[in-house]
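Two quick folds needed for the group meeting slides. Do the first one here.
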Amino acid sequence: MEGLKPAKILIVHQGGVGDFILCLPAFGSIRQHYPGSRIELMGYPRILQLVEGRYYVDQGKSIDQVGLGPFYLEDGKLGGRVFGYFADFDLAFLFFHDRNIIFSDNVRRTGIKRVFTISPFPEKGRRVHVIDHMLSFLSWMGIPPGESIPRIFLLEEDRWFAEVWLRQRGAFDGMRKGLVAFHPGSGSQKKLWPIENFLDLAERITRDLRLNTILLSGPAEREYLGSGLERMRAIIPIWAEDLPLIHVASILDKCRYYIGNDSGITHLAAAVGIPTIALFGPTDPEIWGPRGERVAILEKHLGCSPCTQEELEGCNQQRCLELIEVEEVIERAKSLM
């Protein structure tokens, strides 16, 4: 990208945890290409903590507090502080699907000289990983692609939090022996490995591999796993519930490995850098899978999987997940040890 180096760059992202983590290599490429620029990222506050002041961006801005309503309207009435906030930037990257380019056009109306919209989704029918898709787009713009593996950069205070948190729960000795983290949830109930399998897996890892276990969960899991989550609590001694994402990341950093469904937390574990076993069913890991040096994806290649969103909505039994056996996961876990 030719021209003067921008003094201030704005990145806007409106997706969930998994989508956000898959954007990290693109954010890193922007940082690498503009090392002296100040970069701010507008997004959801619970996710911003993963990158704010941690290499990728200098400061985060809550998308919930900005008041972006008029920016989604054609010829929306722009003004006030939000107009002035946008106008202060020299360059903007919008990481979301702006189908009618209304949002992008309104951002340009604030006076930002260069605005680029990068869809986080590959074109329909194009089987390319979303990370490669975004890096390819940046390369076309003249921004050389950097590392293609997402990374979370933990600070000493993060690692200290995890150690204290585990000590308070009597898990520090278990950490030395080996902690295995489980996350039985996902953003979609149709991406869940059967809870009975997680129960069996947790018991066998404790009994046969003699490792300690930790359960990661939040409000979504309580809502749709119900009694299954309570049964997991009964056999897993350590629970990490409703923690800030950066604290989840710091606890994951202390674990020997992680096992979970296609979810944002699975992408987080891979980005922290620990061995990660991801259980995939209806989603195509060639496009959406977590990336890392120590990531293993277990899936069953059925005639109907991976499937489209429309097919998934009409599917009442996820055989693609049910057919992944506990023994397969155990054997993969042993290989990671």
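Then this one, please, same format:
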Amino acid sequence: MTNPPNSNPTSGVTGLPGTQPPQAANLPGAQPPQAADPSSTQSLQDTSQSDTQPSQATNLPGTQPPQAADSAGQFPMRLQKYLARAGVASRRGSENLMTAGQVTVNGQVVKELGYKITPGIDQVRVNDVLVHPADLPTYLMLHKPAGYLTTMDDPQGRPTVRQLIPFEQKPGLFPVGRLDNDTTGLLLFMTDGELAHRLLHPRRHVPKRYRVIADGQLQQEQLDQLRQGIVLNDGITLPAIIELGAVSRKPLTAREKIRLNVDKTFSPWQTELYCTITEGRKRQVKRMFSAIGHPVIELSRIAFGPLELADLLQGSWRNLSDSEVQQLKDAVD
């Protein structure tokens, strides 16, 4: 069969070898296709680039781009970790400073707990004081006397433990935990926020040993209660290690001697005990003994983890040895 005159057997087929696509006819009144205006093409390219290129992230909390190590090899770290390492406070205390709006990075208040900074590049300030990470952490032990608050600042001007330690030489020192105003004994201070955080963490169960003078004469049943756990308003305590000491007569005042004659419930006796707990609840030892009807008369902490108070004089402090610091770290690893 032959093709009709003027017909094209490849009409409508494109891309075949040896064939050309059909050319548009230049019909009367029709304009030939115009080339694109170079300025128009450039404008489209500019628009395309602006739509596809990532915008520059601002240094705002929660909007930080991934950060690589700087030229000095410093990697970003969380701001609260940096503050803890600098000895400003424990990690928990550093988080409280941040959420209170007391921390700035490069002049900007940062409250976001996930915020990261690059040491040596970003300027960190707490209450407008520039923070420098401590090169070598400081660790010391204080034999706290009664009558001092475990705080570094008291708005009412009462005596604080800050007055008993070399805070001016080591301004980053802070207490690890606390002792009540009338409680004496071993109180640790350090500029190592990471270690302090681990020592105080409830999951670590770091033991604290106390010498207790309790009112009255404890019976075996009450000693067993302490060893098994005492129900307090914030839950039952973990079992305590109780060692019974001496029972002695209390040094009675004139008023107490009169009371002894008229109040049959008043006891002239007091009991010495050694109590080891592995929790850190507020006023826990005092609440435990009050719950069994024998309030604490005197309380002194004589050991924290592997460290003992020994013969350190009341009101005195000493630096921890490298071996003692390692013992603390081993206790929480």
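Slide caption for protein two: The CA atoms of residues 209 and 276 lie 4 Å apart.
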